[in-house]
Design a protein that fits this description.
The two termini are 50 Å apart. The chain has 22 helices and seven strands. The protein is of the alpha/beta class.
Amino acid sequence: MDSAHIGRGRSLPSGLVGLASIGATLECGQCSQFVLHAARYCLERKIMRKKSPFICGGPVPPTYFIGREEQTDALMGQLTGPARGGSAIYGERRVGKTSLLHYLMSDQVAEEWGVPTESWHFVLLDCQQIDKPGQFWPHVFKYIADIDLGEELDAQARSLSKNKMVEEAALARFFDRVARQKRFIVLLLDEFECITEQLDPKNPEVLYQLRQLLNRQQRGLAIVTASRESVDLLCRDIDFKGSPFYNNLLSVQLPSFMDSEIKDLLALADPPFSESEAAYIARIGGRHPLLLQLAADATHRHRARLKADRPLDFAAIGRAYERRARQHYRDLWRDTHPKDQILLALVALRSFHQREGGRGYEVQAIETLLTRSGRALRTLAERGFVTDDVFPRLLSSVGEWWLIEEIAGWAEIAEEWKSFLLPSELSQLEAAIRAARVNQRGLRNLASWAVRPESK
């Protein structure tokens, strides 16, 4: 590394040569102080530039993949079993479905499950690329043609990729030949709802073709779909002739992180997070994998910028996290069913009014509404939105802050909510929202509470 000498054989990194040239114009004592400050500055900048191990966008690479042992076992158990069956993954937005599909394709999984990589071929297709159902098979065969299945199958795949319509007989012949050559193609269909939403409910041709291929005696093809809703719900408006397409698929839910997975994720930090730092990350990020990554990354970056022996400013971390997570909260909220939106709003309002010492009848009215929804609340707990308590709370303090501010800003109740509420329930909910809206001091307190570490 290029350097500039600083007396007695010591040298200065090239990044500080410019600073040293300024120091050389100063008196000797001033120069020493200048160089010390410059060196300290360089060290702090080096620490600050240390790469964060947390991934805040795009699929997680297999080497950084955390947990999901139960889901991986279920998916690979299906594929490697005697029937070589497929599966249908479902879970919330940004919960890690695409990352899991990438992980299934990894050398690590192949080694653990004894997958013969020379004859098994994984093909990942983002269904958002497909504008019309008729484009499905040409897209599939375009990717299959790149696999190198041998001269004959490669030529057939290229030919089928150019067809505007691919007949069932041609599909069956191709995948039977794949099986006879002791090969196996696993089609990973990400964002599968982009296909089902385009289909004719009375003639879902693509699904019939997939069902026919998955039912063949020779197993040349299996599929793994990924979508926000379970595949039976995706197909609820489709009028199948005969058994539904998804009958042979194992349904695999991808929930929010468990405690062990949160621990494994936070263990990526170097140096390790302290117990209080880890607890704070879980407090603001909840259990959602992406939101936890954002919270951990915000904490890592704040910590890296601190001078030695300075305490963390948790409020600053929380505000930085909220700015980055805001769009994701909006997306999650938009994708949530109105019934569940109502329950989440009630949970947040109960916590807000209880913390603010609100009027007893407001809290009591909300609790009455919640007690009628035990099963739905348990489902929200399983999905990682709320705690599993009689009267739950949102798992993310910053998520509660965002949600209260969101609904407090409404001029009136969302129209789609009204069909799920009795007039008396609607009136009670409107009163609770109105009370939150006019409590400006309470809203300021909420903003402070959300980014504070939880008191012991």
